[in-house]
Amino acid sequence: AQSVTQPDIHITVSEGASLELRCNYSYGATPYLFWYVQSPGQGLQLLLKYFSGDTLVQGIKGFEAEFKRSQSSFNLRKPSVHWSDAAEYFCSRTEAGGTSYGKLTFGQGTILTVHP
Amino acid sequence: DTGVSQDPRHKITKRGQNVTFRCDPISEHNRLYWYRQTLGQGPEFLTYFQNEAQLEKSRLLSDRFSAERPKGSFSTLEIQRTEQGDSAMYLCASSLAGAYSPLHFGNGTRLTVT
Question: What three-state secondary structure class fits B1?
């Protein structure tokens, strides 16, 4: 079965520091990978997605992620964190095409705290 | 684009009661999904529709749960004889049917069963 692992439950960084959130996915022929952000009491907002092609993908709010097939990873990065980035971040995957698309498998999430 | 709308935002009910949630997707989206999120976990897939057809249901969706999308627009999720374990955030999402169409999530309905 598909799975997604986010090893870090909670990360704390200082405002202005760089950020990397880890995500590992189980092997799949053609994984589609996503990062979502969720603020308290809110739904999920898509930050970025990877389908194919360039392994470094850019997203909204200055985030980027790098797909590394050899490591089954899709880590999220931001060079300089802002206080408004404090939220919970979810990595997710689905398989390409057919009826499977949209059946996202999510990791447990990583809560990001930003210190001033 | 007015986004995905869910109603109510919060629902408190007593064990054994029935509850119904509504989701209004983005108007041009023909796919609609229901997910459930418990505290400290990522969302889990429950079911999805393409237009009015319910194409797949998760094993998480017991026979106490039923979802409909009668005219291919809004959807309802009903839970009968609620149990405390049903307490969760119920998220709705919608998308176009294409393989590259991302899901757009609503703000969810938080259910508390006392």
Answer: coil
pLDDT digits (tens, 9 = 90+) for A48-92: 999 888 899 999 999 999 999 889 999 999 999 999 999 999 999
d(CA A1, CA A95): 11
Contact B1, B102 (CB under 8 A): no
- For chain B, the first-to-last Cα distance in angstroms comes to 36
Cα(B7)–Cα(B23) distance, integer angstroms: 7
pLDDT for position A43: 87
Using pLDDT thresholds of 50, 70 and 90, give the confidence band for residue B15: very high
Interface test with B, best of A9, A25, A30, A44 (most B CBs within 10 A): A44
Check whether B9 has a pLDDT greater than 80.
yes
Residue A60 DSSP one-character state? G
Task: Quick: pLDDT tens for B69-86.
Answer: 998 899 999 999 999 999
Is A85 within 8 Å of A106 (Cβ atoms)? Answer: no
Residues of A within 8 A of B107 (CB-CB) are 41-43
| Dihedral of the alpha carbons of B30, B33, A110, A114, in degrees to the nearest 10 | 60
Residues of A whose CB is below 8 A from B41: 108-109
Query: Distances from the Cα of B81 to the Cαs of A41, B43, B108, B110, B114, in angstroms?
Result: 26, 22, 21, 17, 12
Q: Cα A5 to the chain's mean position, in Å?
A: 10
* Whole-number Å distance between alpha carbons of B60 and A90: 20
Partners of B4 in beta bridges: none
